[in-house]
TrEMBL record:
Pathway: Amino-acid biosynthesis; L-serine biosynthesis; L-serine from 3-phospho-D-glycerate: step 3/3. It comes from Glaciimonas immobilis. It is an enzyme of class 3 (hydrolase). GO terms for cellular component: cytoplasm. GO terms for biological process: L-serine biosynthetic process. Transmembrane segments: none annotated. Belongs to the HAD-like hydrolase superfamily. SerB family. Its cofactor is Mg(2+). Its EC number is 3.1.3.3. One of its GO terms (molecular function) is L-phosphoserine phosphatase activity. This is Phosphoserine phosphatase. The active site is at residues 86, 88.
Length: 288
């Protein structure tokens, strides 16, 4: 295996020293020295993986604010044909429904439900229905305000997507959020496929209802599988990125699952966790 270390430390020399110290601590299990990948990433080749080693690296990296990944030495970006991404708190920094609720003065109530659902403590369908119901009567112009005033891409998103698209990999944005936002992001970033929930709007106001079936964990998984089938590949040719419990099912069928700024439940089950670096942190892991 290769062990890839990444950091956003401003002091490059200090970061390199930290990385070298971590590698030296596992020298008996490693077959090579540290190799620079970029200004923020390093690779140690020929590492003999073990659960004990992973636990030690996890502790050391958390303390030093480094991200790490154990990856097969022959794995490259060309192994994949699809990148599937969650939207809220993954591709973008906000939870859109929380910001919409803020327009109603209800952000604390809605955000508490969102957080519990993302931790896996609430059934997603029930949580979404409850949150959307609180938006009843809100002027639909609030959606545009959220998009223009509050929605920001996560760090590294555009760099990551540029490399993914240049490699000919298709992109999918699959969200438990809303089509109002996924449609605009699709156009803005040139994403190939999107799937999300539809908010009902009547006479310019939200009714508090969702139209059609809810995009929950099962539907996210089905969407990844469906798009892979359209592309003529298995889900093992997909990279899936997410942060919440409702992303786990689609992450489980992927060839590479990436937990981004994720809840502990998700970090524990993902192939890779990016806690400190941006979304473009997947690139050094895949040899870019």
């Amino acid at each position: 295996m290769n062990l890839v270390l990444q950091s956003l430390h401003q002091d490059r020399a200090a970061a390199t020293r930290i990385a070298k110290n971590m590698v030296q601590s596992i020298a008996p299990l490693a077959g090579s020295q540290l190799v620079d990948i970029s200004a923020t990433a390093w690779r140690c080749e020929g590492v003999e993986y073990s659960d004990a080693l992973k636990a030690a690296i996890d502790t050391a990296c958390h303390a030093a604010q480094f991200d790490y990944a154990f990856v097969p030495s022959d794995r490259t970006l060309s192994d994949f044909k699809l990148l599937a991404m969650d939207m809220d708190s993954t591709l973008i920094t906000i939870e859109c429904i929380d910001e919409i609720a803020d327009m109603q003065g209800l952000k604390p109530q809605v955000a508490a439900i969102t957080e519990a659902a993302m931790r896996g403590e609430l059934e997603f369908n029930d949580s979404l229905i409850a949150r959307v119901a609180l938006l009843k009567g809100l002027d639909a112009s609030a959606l545009q305000r959220v998009y223009e005033e509050r929605l920001q891409l996560s760090p590294g998103a555009e760099i990551m997507l540029a490399a993914i698209q240049a490699a000919g990999i298709k992109t999918l944005l699959v969200s438990g959020g809303f089509t109002f936002f996924t449609d605009r992001i699709k156009t803005r970033l040139g994403i190939d496929y999107t799937h999300a929930n539809v908010l009902e709007i009547v006479d310019g106001r939200l009714t508090g209802n969702v139209i059609g079936d809810i995009v929950n964990a099962e539907e996210k998984q089905n969407t990844v599988a469906r798009v892979c089938a359209q592309l003529g590949v298995t889900p093992k040719a997909a990279i899936v990125m997410g942060d919440g419990a409702n992303d786990l099912k689609m992450m489980h069928i992927a060839g590479l699952s990436v937990a981004f700024r994720a809840k502990p439940l998700v970090r524990a089950q993902a192939s890779v966790a990016l806690n400190f670096v941006g979304l473009d942190g997947i690139l050094p892991i895949l040899g870019c």
